[in-house]
Design brief:
The complex is a heterodimer of chains A (about 240) and B (about 300). Chain A is built from 10 helices and no strands. With about 240 residues, chain A is an all-alpha fold. The longest helix of chain A has about 35 residues, at about 45-75. The chains are: A mainly alpha (about 240), B alpha/beta (about 300). Chain A: InterPro entries: ABC2_TM, ABC_2_transport, Nod_factor_ABC_transporter.
Chain lengths: ~240, ~300
């Protein structure tokens, strides 16, 4: 456990030394807040709260897909990574440390969205709901962490960058993150429940307001978690087999 | 006591046999040099011994245990062939990170001083010169007060002064009772440090002997001449005929020439040249093995010498 914290700490240090990397995952959702949410839903407390929750989901998704997808793929290129395997610790502390650092960075990248929501819009949350929402963030990180790991462990870094960029926009739009709950254009409403972003967004909406989660979206989210977990597990084992067996 | 052992260890990557039934024992207090050309299998052997790879067949052991078990790696220190330090971390942070894995690490300042890096603790590793990075990578092997260090080409890319600093540090560690297995393609380096040399070629242990004995093998000369018939000649390591010229690799060129003359052999266009380390490697590694003291005639398909 102690070693996990050590690994998490140094991975965070490595990332934070290049602030632009952190800025990157926070930028797009923050910009979307300013351009779409503030002018259109800014005055309506309920709408602004839901919209901020959507952007938080967006931010969680992009932060996780990018940092794991690209971070893991880049790490696999570095000789430092096998070196750490010669230290008297197995691969577990490094892996757990990475997930811990990833979660910390996810929260960090949410700060601009939350600050914009709180100051420039009428969005409002009770302290209890805020804590519930913060906890929900950890839950909805799971599918996107797995997706990032699957990308990072199965692709070389140059391909991982492209794939991460290709998947994240359709997931955001298709899941209806850029529309108020139930008000996305027709075909998006049809496909949204089948995307992991929708289930995640619905959990966020339910944590911040009066929203009833659709069973279909939730079931599909569960299916995604199982599929992505087996994909990530397969890619991880394959990579271990190639490099360490 | 044996600290590291390979017992008939083989390692295959797809179709390539990188290590072929290697036997090696490193005993406490030894300083063993692993010598061989690129691609000979040195790094593969190192990777097996530090637990990064599993042998395809055979066994490897560290302190009598499995190197893949983290607990057995507590008493080793490793420098991989490639440096690859995280560029954004400071030198001190990298040392602290590695230290965190050991119960009783060497204090950071002391370690950095020992490797001539004392004033670089605050620098990011990405801003170091290649030589400084390499020295740091070697220093990291010593953080955990190991009993055995495995250094894979530790001084590759260093200038002479930096190389000597590293040699001093490695010697000091050995003098204090530490055990060292280091690979290199510089004979000079192995001569300067090691007492025992293991020559690897094409995945096999070709020679495992003292530095003097290997220097004798490597100190081979090439005598080339044009002749139809050769008498039995002493000290011949290898014979080959290229474009009508005979090339004789020998440990004693003077004696060989005397023998040629005594036998009344008709020859012309005699040349005697020293062989490079590479040629000597090739002589040892090409399958026509030197058979120690025995004079060998042309292209005898001998067994690898494992002395």
């Amino acid at each position: 456990m102690q070693l996990t914290l050590v690994h998490a700490r140094y991975q965070l240090l490595e990332i934070i030394r290049i602030p632009v990397a952190v800025f990157g995952s926070a930028f797009f959702p923050a910009a979307a807040m300013i351009f779409f949410v503030v002018p259109f839903a800014g005055d309506d407390a309920t709408g602004a709260t839901f919209a901020t929750a959507s952007m938080v989901t967006f931010s969680v998704m992009s932060a996780n897909i990018f940092q794991y997808g690209i971070g893991v793929a880049e790490d696999r290129d570095q000789p430092w990574n096998p070196y750490t395997r010669t230290l008297p610790a197995g691969p577990a502390p490094r892996f757990a440390g990475r997930v811990l650092a990833g979660l910390a960075l996810t929260y960090l990248s949410l700060i601009p969205v939350v600050v914009i929501g709180a100051t420039l819009t009428a969005a409002h949350l009770s302290p209890a709901a805020f804590l519930l929402a913060a906890g929900t963030v950890a839950v909805i990180s799971v599918p996107f962490t797995l997706m990032g790991l699957a990308i990072g462990y199965s692709l070389p870094s140059k391909a991982a960058i492209v794939i991460a960029q290709v998947v994240f926009l359709p997931l955001a739009f298709g899941g209806g993150l850029l529309s108020a709950p139930g008000e996305a254009p027709g075909f998006i409403e049809t496909i949204a429940p089948y995307l992991p972003t929708r289930g995640a967004a619905e959990l966020m909406w339910a944590s911040v307001g009066d929203f009833r989660v659709q069973p279909l979206a939730l079931i599909m989210l569960g299916v995604w978690v199982v599929v992505l977990a087996s994909l990530a597990g397969w890619a991880y084992r394959r990579d271990e087999g190639r490099r360490f067996s | 006591m044996t600290l590291a052992r390979a017992d008939q260890a083989s390692r295959r990557y797809g179709d390539v046999l990188a290590l072929d039934r290697v036997d090696l024992e490193v005993r406490a207090g030894e300083l063993v040099g692993l010598l061989g050309p690129n691609g000979a299998g040195k790094s593969t052997l190192m990777n097996l011994l530090v637990g990064l790879r599993r042998p395809s067949s055979g066994r490897v052991e560290l302190f009598g245990g499995d190197p893949r078990d983290p607990a057995t790696r507590r008493q080793i220190g490793v420098t991989p062939q490639e440096t690859g330090l995280p560029g954004t971390l400071r030198v001190g942070e990298v040392v602290d990170f590695v230290s965190a894995h050991y119960a009783d690490p060497v204090p950071r300042g002391e370690l950095l001083d020992r490797f001539g890096l004392g004033d670089l603790g605050k620098r990011q590793t990405g801003g170091l010169s290649g030589g400084q990075r390499r020295r740091l990578a070697v220093a990291l092997a010593f953080v955990g007060r190991p009993r055995l260090v495995l250094l894979d080409e530790p001084t590759t890319g260093l200038d002479v002064a930096a190389r000597h600093t590293l040699w001093e540090a490695i010697r000091a560690f050995h003098t204090d009772g530490g055990t060292v297995l280091l690979s290199s393609h510089y004979l000079e380096e192995v001569e300067a440090l090691a007492h025992r040399v293991v020559v690897i070629g094409q995945g096999r242990v070709l020679v495992d002997d003292t530095v003097d004995a290997v220097r004798g093998i490597v100190g081979v000369r090439r005598v080339s001449l044009v002749a139809d018939q050769l008498p039995d000649l002493p000290g011949l390591v290898r014979t080959e005929r290229i474009d009508g010229r005979l090339h004789l690799l020998t440990t004693d060129a003077d004696e060989l020439v005397r023998a040629l003359v005594r036998a009344g052999t008709t020859f012309s266009d005699l040349e005697v040249r020293p062989t490079s380390l590479e040629e000597a490697f090739l002589a040892i590694t090409s399958g026509d093995q030197p058979t120690g003291e025995q004079p060998a005639t042309a292209a005898a398909g001998g067994q690898p010498t494992t002395v």
